[in-house]
Amino acid sequence: MTYLKWVLTVLGLGTVLATGMVASADADYDQALKTAPQGISLDNIFVPGTTSNNQASIVNTTNPNITGTQAAKVNNGKKQFGALWSTTDNHFDLTKNMKSSMWMYFGNTGKKAADGMALVFQNDTRGLAATPTYGKTVAGETLGVWGVDTDKKQTTPDKLASTAIQNSWALEFDTHLNTSTSYSNTGNADSFDVGINGPHIASNYPGEVSTYEMVRTSTLLPIYSVGYYATQTHAGTIAGDYTMLSNGAWHHLTIDWQASTKQMTYTFDDKDPITGKKQTGKSAHVTLDTTKIDPNDTGQVRWGFTGATGDSYENNLVIFEEVPGLVDVDANATLTDITQNKVVDNDGTVKGGDKVRLDYQLSYEGGKQEWKDVVAQLKLPSKLSFTKGTITYADGTSTAVDLSGLDSERQLTVKLAKALSSSNQTATISFMGTADEVTEPASVTGLTSTFTAVNGVETASTVDFTLNPTQEVLLASLNGTTFSADDGDVTVKGSVVVPDSTNLKNTDITVKSTLNGRAQADFKIPESDDNESGRFDYTVKPNQLTAGDNTLIITVADPYGNESNPLKVTITLTGQVLFNGVAEASSFQSTTLTGSQQQVKRGNDWQVNVLDTRTAGATWTLQVSATAFTTKDGRQLAGGLYFHDDTGKTAVTTTPMNIASGQSTSNDDEKDIVSDWQDETGLLLDVGSASVSGQYQSQLTWTLNDTP
Question: Where is the signal peptide (predicted)?
Answer without folding.
Answer: 1-27
